[in-house]
Here is the input.
Amino acid sequence: MRTMKSKCLRDKRKFSMSLDFQEFNKRRIAFSCALNGIRQALKSEMNLKIHVSVAFIVIIMAYAFRVSLLEWVVLFLTIGSVIAFELMNTAIEKAMDFLAPDFHPSVGLVKDIAAGAVFIAVLTSVVIGCIIFIPKIIHYFW
Here is the structure.
């Protein structure tokens, strides 16, 4: 009786491990697709290149001015939100271009709204950057 029970457990573990591997493989493929999307957007979107370049400069400045841990968290959340909004804007623009290749006022409005979301994120990040860096710059030079 015991051998049968342990055999069932072993078979269950094998089945569970194969499911875990399949789940891992699905996650790996999803991760690969996400990275491919980011790579393609970086190749084709000038605004995304600008946002990533500015983010790189902000990270260097944060390191140089020795920002606090909380400021690092705020900066990374801000950088991440701007880049995420820009990626979403790009996805919306590509989808709208595919669905309606000819000019349509509603499509233009959808694109404008998506661009407006990016603009709000960028304005917010500029304000946060000023709050964090202006006092440090003033302290450094005066």
